[in-house]
Specification:
Two copies of one chain form a homodimer. By secondary structure, the first copy, chain A, is α/β, with parallel strands linked by helices. The first copy, chain A, has two domains: 171 residues, Acetylglutamate kinase-like (Carbamate kinase); 145 residues, VC0802-like (2-Layer Sandwich), CATH 3.30.2130.10. Chain A contains 13 helices and 18 strands. In chain A, the strands form four sheets. An eight-stranded mixed sheet of chain A has the order 3-6-2-1-9-11-12-10, sandwiched between helices. In chain A, strands 14-15-13-16-18-17 form a six-stranded antiparallel sheet. In chain A, 47% of the residues are buried. The interface between A and B is large, with 36 and 36 residues.
């Protein structure tokens, strides 16, 4: 029986007229067996061209105008891909976020999807036509254009897959799938055939940039299986499965890392209820994503509160923390931008102990100092010096025999 | 008292970051005294870039997709101009055709404006904010994007001026105003300070490409005074006035010409009621604009029916005429693409005779043969050989002393 599949193509997959033509072939082939809905990013280079234009008028362009500007990138690629399909005799129609009412919050450049007009998409599919939908963008209640932030097209694709009850969301990229770690850092990194949603969620959050974090969260929440594969090479990619389908989970499935982080430590704050909220509340209101959060046991009612954010949010967080200094009454603010995160992820950690100590031992034997440790059920995150990231990953990849 | 003025800026006026900045200065200056609403074209070069992309997928891209594609050009320039104004401390907001509901017919690439949400624009103006509106585009009842055809931004500007009861519509271009004839053909052509709407209508229709014909028609119909001026040089431009404000109209105000025309003659058709409609009905349905139409007196109940259309419509008109051959029963179809039109325009012709014969005499003395003559109250149109256009214009410009 025919399935309904959402296919998403990123910027490099659509980077030229020839690439758009190649993508049209992939869609044509898939549409012979299944009903296909497509989500597209802007052609690679286009978004940067638009951002450069915007920056000609100052470093801080109005966010509403900025979003209206950059959203044109996806409108262009959706119309062109639709034309490419027509030239192959396939029925297709482009749709902007406004045309299928991808409603979002009004946080320009960081908007979150609230709703999608599934009926419109289903009507098009019913008509044996392939809808080519602009990713990355949405509209507010008032009809203003928003964007979801970089990588947001993945989220659009999964959200649409969820709303139209698609059987799967195929995310086409320029890599062959998910690897045990970054092949640029570890030469014998291996492609995984499948990975659990939880593992992927942890990996994505930690800088495995193949699929956007929020997209995986959406997939997890709405039970949409996601497959990551290449639009450049044939291959089955990596299936991000809903359940632990393998009998036995790997102890460690992969290693992720993330640079461009900054660590904030509020030294000597009162360890009283509400402190964490008082610190993180205004930061979250400013739509800054806080990553690792660590608070150690208190001594004499005082503790150190540490968290990391993306480098680009450093200034705004500094400002917020200075605004709430009197309320929080911290002694000192320590900012360290020279850090990176390395994470081990594996669903098998749940039932096996000793992974953490094995990792710490291997790193210490190789003179990598661990500044912060933070563990969850299936993940161990370590904050280390930025310059030691490559060494740490290679050590861990070998220690846990991920090349085998 | 403060007036409300719609300012329209074309592609060359917005052709670079520097030009956009210069336009923002013009708007800033004007906004000190008056309420300003702005309509923009795409940055010059952008529309052609998009058309080239579209043509990569065949010569005849789907018109719905084509319109969605090229409409991004104006979205980009409206957002950028808005940012440029912000950088000068001026409040501005960009609006797409969809956002202010510029409703059009669904003839893609040749859509006609039906309605505009004036209230939305007035609300923005009320808020001391300058709306920067995308020209050239609209939306259908069903929410699909349309475009008005090249030059359509002028029409958008005049339509908006009409709907919000603006005091004037200023159309900024790369020329200083309307001239007695093309300064490239006649070196001492003179800029006119004012011209009547009727004269402009005749001139625009005959290839004086400074303002789009439909825009002048709109201006005429809704009584919107239009001023044409340069965004590159200071100057008062040419005012296209609603009434004959000068005491005495010039005999001949200007000379227009148009190449790229093709002449169709249906030889020996029956001179019976309905013939003209049977010929022109299906051509008009195909959205082809017919220009000069001439039918001479009949001899023995048979006549010759001649009309001209733009070269680009030649194939479609041929096809239509071949479809209706049996119904019309013409003897022969004569197609001549080697023609051009030259027109003398002047409100003074109404009360003065002898203009036509003076023109014919001057041309014949210079060996220019006139194939077709067609006159209206304020215009004399002559169809001549394409290669003789420059000569004819110079002869007429001198004959009617337009350089004085």
């Amino acid at each position: 029986m025919s399935e309904t599949i959402v296919q998403k193509f990123g910027g490099t997959s659509l980077g030229s007229v020839e690439r758009i033509d190649a993508v049209a072939e992939i869609i044509k082939k898939a549409s012979k067996k299944n009903k296909i809905a497509v989500v597209v990013s802007a052609m690679s280079g286009e978004t940067n061209r638009l951002i450069d234009l915007a920056n000609s008028f100052g470093n801080n362009p109005d966010k509403r105008e900025f979003d209206a500007l950059v959203s044109t990138g996806e409108t262009i690629s959706s119309a062109l891909l639709s034309m490419a399909l027509h030239s192959k005799g396939i029925k297709a129609r482009s749709f902007s976020a406004s045309q299928i009412a991808i409603r979002t919050t009004s946080s320009y450049s960081k908007a979150k999807i609230l709703d999608v007009d599934a009926k419109k998409i289903l009507d098009v599919l019913e008509n044996d036509t392939i809808p080519i939908i602009t990713g990355f963008q949405g509209i507010t209640e008032g009809g203003d254009i928003t964007t979801l932030g970089r990588g947001g097209s993945d989220t659009t694709a999964v959200a649409i897959a969820a709303q139209i009850n698609a059987n799967r969301c195929d995310i086409y990229t320029d890599v062959d799938g998910i690897f045990t770690t970054d092949p640029d850092i570890v030469s014998n990194a291996k492609k995984l055939d499948s990975i659990t949603m939880e593992e992927m969620l942890e990996l994505a959050g930690q800088g495995a940039k193949v699929v956007q974090t929020r997209a995986v969260e959406f997939a997890n929440k709405y039970h949409v299986p996601v497959r990551v594969l290449s639009s450049f090479n044939d291959g089955s990619g990596t299936l991000i499965s809903l359940k632990d389908e393998s009998m036995e989970n790997a102890l460690v499935s992969g290693i992720a890392s993330q640079k461009d982080q900054v660590k904030f430590t509020l030294h000597s704050v009162g360890d009283i209820p509400g402190t964490a909220f008082k610190i993180l509340g205004p930061i979250s209101e400013a739509e800054v994503e806080v990553d690792v959060i660590v608070q150690n046991v208190s001594i004499d009612g005082k503790t150190d509160f540490t968290f990391t954010v993306s480098n680009e949010d450093q200034e705004i967080v500094k400002k917020i923390l200075s605004n709430i200094k009197d309320e929080i009454n911290y002694k000192e603010l320590i900012i360290n931008p020279d850090i990176a995160k390395v994470s081990l992820v594996g669903a098998g950690m749940r039932s096996q102990s000793g992974v953490a100590s094995k990792a710490f031992k291997a790193l210490s034997e190789n003179d990598v100092n661990i500044q912060i440790i933070c563990t969850s059920e299936i993940k161990i995150t370590m904050v280390i010096k930025e310059e030691e990231v490559e060494k740490a990953i290679n050590v861990l990849h070998e220690e846990f025999e991920l090349d085998k």
